[in-house]
Automatic annotation (TrEMBL):
Highest taxon of source: Bacteria
Listed name of the protein: ABC transporter permease
Organism for this UniProt entry: candidate division TA06 bacterium
Coiled coil start-end: none
Keyword Nucleotide-binding among UniProt keywords: no
Amino acid sequence: MRDSILLFKKEMIAIFRDKRLILTVTLVPFIFIPAIFYFNGIGRNTKPEKKFVIAYNEKCPYVSFLEKYNFQTVKILDKSDALKFDAWDVFVYNSKEDTLLKLYVNAAKSNSGGIIKTMERYYLSFRDVYIKDKLKSMQIDINKVIPPTIKIIRINESKNSIVSFLLPFFILIYLFSNAIGVGLDSIAGEKERNTLQILLVNRISRESILFGKLFSTMTVSLTGAIFSILGILVLYIFKIIPNAGSTLLNFTPVNFSLFSIIILSLDMLVVSILILISSYSRTVKEGQGYILPVYFIILILGMAVMNPDSSIAVNFANWPFINSLLSMQNILNGNIHTSYIVWTIVSNILFTIIILKIATILFNRESIIFRK
C-alpha cells in the first residue's frame, strides 16, 4: 500500500502539470452544464402564447370567441385571396350552405402544427361555452346534462424532477469522460512510450503499480463529477432552473453520505473498466477503440433511465450503472430505499473487485504487457 501511495503522488504531480487537463476536469463541467440548460431553455419562465392573425369571410360565434382572447381578426370576402396567407395565419371559412366550419392553415409554415393545436384547444373551450349558453336559453339545468369537470391535483410531486434525472446522468458522463484520457494513458500510454518497463524493473509490486494508477485516475474522475454538481448549483444561483440547488442544499447528512458512497463506488467501477482495457491495450488508440463502444452503450442506458418508467429502468433495475443512476435519482427525490441502495453499492464493489482481479492477471502476464 505504501508503494501504491507513492506512485499515486507521482501520478498526480504529472497530471497537475497538464494545465489543459485541469481546465477540462474543472471548468468544462462547471460551465458546460449551465450552458446546456440555458441555451435549451429548460426551467425558464414559459413564454406567453403567441396570438395568431385570424382571417374570416363571415363573422361566426367561434371568431367572436377568439376575439375575446385578443386574437387579431381581419375580414376577407374572397376565398382565393384569403388562401394566399399574406398577413394572417388561419382562414375561417363559414359557408351558408354547409354547417361545417372550415379552418385553413398554411402547412408551409414551420409552426403550422402549433397553430392547429391552438385552434383545436380554443375550439373545445368555445364548444363548452356555446353548449352551456344554449342550454341556459332553453332553461335546462346544465348539471343534469353536462358531466362535472375534473381537476387533477398532484400530490408529493418532486420540485426537482429535472435535476434528479439529469444530475446522475451528468455525473456518469464526467466520471467516464474525465477518466478515459488519464486511465488509458496511465498504462497503455506508458507502454506506447516504453516507460512502463522502468517501473516494472523496480522493486514495486505490479499490484502496487496497478492500484496507484487506479487511485490517481479515480481522483481525476471524481473531480469532474464534483464540479458537475457545482455547475448545478450555478443553475440555482442564477435561477436558470428554479430550486435546482435545493435538493443538494437540503441534503440530510445520511442522504449526502449515501449519495457520495454511490458516486465513489460507481467511480471505482468506471475506473476499473478503464484500467482493465488499458492493461490489455498496446496503445492509447487501441484502448480508445475498446472503450468507446462501452461508453456509448452506457450513455444510451443512462438516457433511457432518465425516464424511470421506461422498460429498461424497470426490467434492468439491478444491473450495474442502471442501479447507480436509479439510486441517485431516488435520493434526490427523497425516496430512500435502503435495501436497493445497499445492493447498488455492494454490486458496484463486487464488479470492481472482479474486474480488478482480471486486470491484475493481465498485468502480471508478460505476453499481455509486452505483446506486439
